[in-house]
Amino acid sequence: MKAIFDKLLRFIDRATLFGAWGAIAAIFLGFWIIIIDILMRILVGSSLSFGLEYSGYLVAISFFWGAGWALNSPSGDGHIRVNLLMERLSLRRARQLDLFASVIGLMMAALLGWAMIDWALGSMALGARSFYPSATQLFWPQILLALGPCLLALAFFAKIIRMMRGPE
Predict the structure, then answer these.
(1) pLDDT at 94
(2) Rounded CA gap, 158 and 168, in Å?
């Protein structure tokens, strides 16, 4: 059983690392779209028709895709955490509270992921397109966005497994 969980944890760690690298790529690409858009406005007098739209998608994707890796980052401080209550509890109670909060986080991330996948599938079924000049099929950015909460749910699941196993 330990070998199965070890493989699962390695898979989740790789998936969330992929999400982190995807978030970095989204930030990088969004940055260059904005820079090129600004330069075109200055030099040519017109901008990229898709610049505002796609940079917005990329910012949202970068936020969501990096969340799973940040939760289980090696330094342990990827997300901001307020420890006012945790510091006042015994170690056992603090671990119980952390486990409880992680289970709630898992449920919320899974629910958000499910809702976003449903949203994307609904857009695909309706053939919904953006109102910007590019008329992008909204399914594509929405399904990419939905991957983020799914990665976060996996990260919470991995955190719960690690907490249940105890210190290694």
Answers:
(1) 87
(2) 14
Q: What is the mean pLDDT of residues 122-147?
A: 94
**Residue 83 backbone dihedrals phi, psi, to 5 degrees:** -100, 20
Banded pLDDT at 100 (limits 50, 70, 90):
very high
**Domain spans in the chain, listed from the N-terminal domain onward:** 2-165
> Coil, helix or strand for 79?
coil
One-letter identity of residue 95? R
Cβ(66)–Cβ(134) below 8 Å: no
Q: What is the 3-state secondary structure (H, E, C) of 4-44?
A: HHHHHHHHHHHHHHHHHHHHHHHHHHHHHHHHHHHHHHHHC
